[in-house]
């Protein structure tokens, strides 16, 4: 059973097997089935509440607040890409990221924060910059004593699309389908929303 079929089963109040299941359903039909399956018995044992997803980067941090409620598909409440010019010094960029995360938390009733882990990089300076951006984002949530969870990119893709090798385009389409968002999400925003969806679906 792939992730789309698991969402449909959860919303229908059915048990979700850990292996096996049906094959061959298209993304569009699976998403439609999941939406139509909402009801009084939906979402048993699943996370309920608002999750702030964060895809950290010094020059383009993605943020997305997604709400999860029994009987309905995820709802995207807020998303933005914190775009910072390369001309802006690193300390100012980190402050901007911190303020953006703080603003997202101030404007919503977020219960958990899901952060995409940094991919492995060979360049020490790049790793250092990514780490600083992550620290600025995480610190804003930590100051509010919010639970923070970290997920690798492969795990997020597996949870949202059904394969850890999904492209950014596949992530965008699947996230937009799951949250019912009509406009095209920017790649960093889709990744942030994907982190939130991954957390809500796998949280126990």
From TrEMBL:
Subcellular localization: Cytoplasm
Gene label: ruvC
Q: What is its main location?
A: cytoplasm
Q: Where is the active site?
A: 55, 116, 188
Relate the assembly described in the record: Homodimer which binds Holliday junction (HJ) DNA. The HJ becomes 2-fold symmetrical on binding to RuvC with unstacked arms; it has a different conformation from HJ DNA in complex with RuvA. In the full resolvosome a probable DNA-RuvA(4)-RuvB(12)-RuvC(2) complex forms which resolves the HJ.
The cofactor remark states: Binds 2 Mg(2+) ion per subunit.
**Swiss-Prot/TrEMBL cofactor(s):** Mg(2+)
Q: Give the record's GO CC terms.
A: cytoplasm; Holliday junction resolvase complex
Query: Which protein is depicted?
Result: Crossover junction endodeoxyribonuclease RuvC
Family, per the entry?
Answer: Belongs to the RuvC family.
């Amino acid at each position: 059973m792939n992730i789309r079929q698991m969402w449909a089963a959860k919303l229908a109040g059915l048990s979700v097997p850990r292996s096996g299941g049906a094959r061959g359903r298209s993304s569009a039909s699976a998403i439609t089935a999941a939406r139509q399956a909402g009801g009084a018995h939906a979402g048993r044992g699943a996370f309920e509440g608002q999750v702030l997803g964060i895809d950290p980067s010094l020059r383009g941090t993605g943020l997305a607040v997604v709400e999860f409620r029994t009987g309905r598909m995820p709802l995207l409440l807020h998303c933005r890409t914190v775009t910072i010019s390369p001309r802006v010094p690193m300390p100012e960029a980190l402050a901007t990221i911190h303020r953006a995360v703080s603003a997202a938390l101030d404007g919503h009733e977020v219960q958990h924060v899901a952060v995409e882990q940094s991919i492995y990089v060979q360049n020490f300076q790049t790793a250092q910059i990514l780490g600083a951006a992550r620290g600025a984002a995480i610190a804003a949530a930590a100051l509010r004593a919010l639970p923070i969870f970290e997920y690798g990119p492969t795990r997020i893709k597996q949870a949202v699309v059904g394969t850890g090798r999904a492209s950014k385009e596949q992530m965008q389409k699947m996230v937009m389908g799951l949250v019912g968002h009509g406009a095209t999400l920017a790649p960093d925003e889709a990744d942030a929303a994907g982190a939130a969806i991954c957390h809500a679906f796998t949280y126990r």
